[in-house]
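Dear colleagues,

For the upcoming journal club I promised to circulate an example of a predicted protein-ligand complex. I picked one with adenosine monophosphate because it came up in last month's discussion. The inputs are reproduced below in full, followed by the predicted structure.
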Amino acid sequence: MRSIADHQQAVAELLSPTLQGLGEETIPLDLARGRVLAEDLLAPVDLPGFDNSQMDGYAAGPPGDLANTYTVLSAIPAGSTETRQLGPGEAAPIMTGAPVPSNADAVAPVEQTRPSAFLNPGESVELPPMEPGNFIRRRGSDIHIGQLALRQGTQLTPPQLGLIAALGLNRVTVLRQLRVGVLSTGDELLPANRESGEASTSPGAIHDANTPMLCAALESAGALAIALPAASDDPDALRESLAEIPDLDVLITTGGVSQGAFEVVRQAFPEVEFGPVAMQPGGPQGLGRLTGQRSGEQNSVPALPLLAFPGNPVSAMVSFEVFLRPLLAGDRPILRLPLLEDVRSPETKHQIRRARLRPEGVELLGGPSSHLLHALAESDALVHLPVGLTDAAAGTEVEVWPL
Ligand code: AMP
Ligand code: MG
């Protein structure tokens, strides 16, 4: 049986030409959330761009004849464009973010002045003792012009989009999105995008959970997900349906890969390699290239790569997390946390349990079964119980991936 690491490697090799050849595009910043930077981004300007006040207060010039007592000048608001010099013994009311006069020593917060108020020009104010530079945010103290702001390969999150905007850029060069088709299989499936919002109660039928779940997972990893109509358990029909699918870089199927009598994905694609991976859930896996299929826009890539995930929803989701997500959006952070209860795990399998992060450790939710979608939905972490670990007592530290 193949190890998780070997299968991860096989998936990485299968998709490597596609991922390497994606190409890039420059898009408006407001469309860039979740997209992946195609090149290192260097700061085109200093941030802050000028010395500015960290407080509402008084910018103090060189001390005058009267220690601590200053003559008040007109106020400097945020956005002020005047360049001002302060004379000895002069202080200007200044607002947070306003440019600090170039010869100001420091800013005194208004709550520390006497009186604690913004006075009119010509009046006298008493300032507290100040260290030079107090409450002045220096030009370039956040990032200097030319410095590496964000690394190539970064998936853009809200703070990173904030940084790019603050640097004055309104377009960003990102990798073209990987176009991934999601195709659930099974005669029993009711499509997820039915007209009626009501649950159907046909006997033996189940609602397709995998298509919307995997599409959302792909989108959150920066890919473009294309939900394909669910396929029946007829291998010829499945094969034929692929003739009509849009341009894709990768196809994911769910279901039809285990040891049952109607394993449609196995039957439809003899050119693909199927086999068990020593993992639970997500054991049955298939991967390969579909012969006779176009692949995206790249001629260099021979044929459409297929990842065949098992059908149980938790298996499908765990398969995505373990095999595909790291290639699209990088590894999840890895924590080591104590278990809050005793657990058992099969010796020859790497078991992945669903869990919730608690202040004291990690709490397992639901059992190991791969149909427990409610428990997955309540989880915010995956817990890894590697091959060889059979019993772990509460308090044992285990590897945890926060989701
Ligand atoms: P399979 O691998 O096709 O035998 O499917 C395993 C189990 O997962 C069966 O109970 C299926 O009904 C269920 N299943 C398969 N595909 C889906 C899906 N798209 N949504 C929800 N459950 C599914
Ligand atoms: Mg099936």
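Two points we might discuss: Confidence is low (pLDDT under 50) at residues 294-301. The CA atoms of residues 37 and 228 lie 28 Å apart.

See you all on Thursday,
B. R.
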